[in-house]
TrEMBL record:
It comes from Spheniscus mendiculus (Galapagos penguin). This is p53 apoptosis effector related to PMP-22. Gene3D superfamilies: 1.20.140.150. It is a multi-pass membrane protein. One of its GO terms (biological process) is cell-cell adhesion. Belongs to the TMEM47 family. One of its GO terms (cellular component) is plasma membrane. InterPro entries: P53_induced (IPR015664), PMP22/EMP/MP20/Claudin (IPR004031). Keywords: Apoptosis, Cell adhesion, Cell junction, Cell membrane, Cytoplasm, Membrane, Transmembrane, Transmembrane helix.
Length: 189
């Protein structure tokens, strides 16, 4: 990407595209019911960020309890949601930043900083949830944190990695804009 510059049409939109993928993963984590699931038969427990559902061994209907009744449930949901909202704001700012013909590199560095803040909020929610869930909610059998919880961690990791890219990109401003003379390693005799 640095070799061809950000004006190279296929490379210009890679970072906003990756942010868009992070937004999609965040939506999956927020809406998914697979934050915690029973691992072995009988499958008697499943939970999302918003509620915990259980049933007896005989396969009755699921009875669900909102996690918003717990202070830690509200804290986990709020911190993860704030991280997600900041990610969406970064996505919108990245679209604006890369759509302008003249790149504002300090603006791009600000997006990177905001991504780190989003990652901190997301990780706080992702740590509060399992620690308090496993101590406050009675679980039977073997349970595992499942696919939607994994999407949440993937979103947080993407926020950190993309934060580094957005913060380091202005360091290569001259190479990106083509202001550096090429150096040749051939010397004539």
């Amino acid at each position: 990407m640095v070799k061809y510059g950000l004006d190279y049409t296929r490379c210009r939109w890679i970072l906003p595209l990756l942010l868009g993928i992070g937004v999609i993963f965040g939506i999956i984590a927020l809406a998914g019911r697979g934050w915690l699931e029973s691992q072995t038969l009988p499958y008697v427990h499943r939970a999302s960020l918003w509620e915990s559902c259980s049933r007896s061994d005989q396969g009755e209907e699921w009875s669900c309890e909102s996690l918003m009744g717990y202070a830690w449930g509200r804290a986990a949901a709020a911190t993860y949601l704030v991280g997600f909202i900041l990610l969406v704001i970064c996505f919108a700012l990245a679209i604006i930043a890369f759509a302008i013909d003249t790149l504002r590199f300090n603006f791009i560095r600000g997006i990177g900083g905001l991504l780190f803040v989003a990652a901190v909020f997301s990780i706080m929610g992702l740590v509060i949830y399992p620690v308090k869930f496993s101590t406050e909610i009675e679980m039977t059998g073997i349970n595992m944190f499942s696919w939607a919880y994994g999407f949440g961690w993937t979103t947080a990791i993407m926020e950190i990695c993309l934060g580094f890219f957005f913060c380091c990109l202005p360091n290569y401003e001259d190479q990106i804009l083509g202001n550096v003379k090429p150096t040749y390693f051939y010397s004539s005799p």
